[in-house]
Amino acid sequence: MITISTWKRKTDYDVTVASIFKNSPTNNLVSNGMTLRAQIEYHKIKNQHNDNLLKLIEDITQFICDCFSKEVNDDNHFDYFLSSHYANQIFTVLQNGEVDAIFYPSVRQSLELTNIAMKPEVFKNNYELEYVEENIITGDLTTNSGWTMIGSGESSTFNNGTIVW
Predict the structure, then answer these.
(1) For a tag site, which of 18, 45, 61, 84 has the least CB within 10 Å?
(2) What pTM was estimated for this model as a whole?
(3) How far, in Å, CA of 10 to CA of 124, rounded?
(4) Alpha-carbon separation of residue 45 from 36, 39, 81, 94 (angstroms)
(5) Are the C-beta atoms of residues 2 and 135 closer than 8 Å to each other?
(6) What's phi and psi for 10, nearest 5 deg?
(7) Sequential pLDDT tens for the chain (165 residues)
(8) Where are the alpha helices (DSSP H) in 17-119?
């Protein structure tokens, strides 16, 4: 079963975002829009630094991006150690802890889609559930042709945080 939820903003709060952007999709057929936009912005500002500092910035940025973009073994939580460490640093140290969310490419989707990690209080205070749907997978997941789903429920009605199906 897969549950898909749609959330909407309930405030005008501007979320401060850090993007993990150096690594692009590997198939060269699809680009990740978030990655592409962040790379363009990065190239606009990177030459503000002298060559020695720029080399250091490039190296550490690439290392952090590699930490977020590496294949992991689901049975080994240590595979997430470096990305977890750097996410914590981004949330607590970068810009004096003012970063609210991190956009990073989805390894499971060959870096083609974007994941979002957001501070819980920022999410809770600024977003509300708008719509939920549940689907049952009916296709064969072992083929490359994709999978099919049959909807088993949907709702846009909620009562005190509970979905009314």
Answers:
(1) 45
(2) 0.78
(3) 10
(4) 15, 10, 30, 18
(5) yes
(6) -115, 0
(7) 889 999 999 999 999 999 998 888 766 677 788 888 888 888 888 888 899 999 999 999 999 999 988 888 878 878 888 999 999 999 999 999 999 999 998 887 778 888 999 999 999 999 999 999 999 888 766 666 667 778 889 999 999 888 998
(8) 33-45, 51-69, 81-92
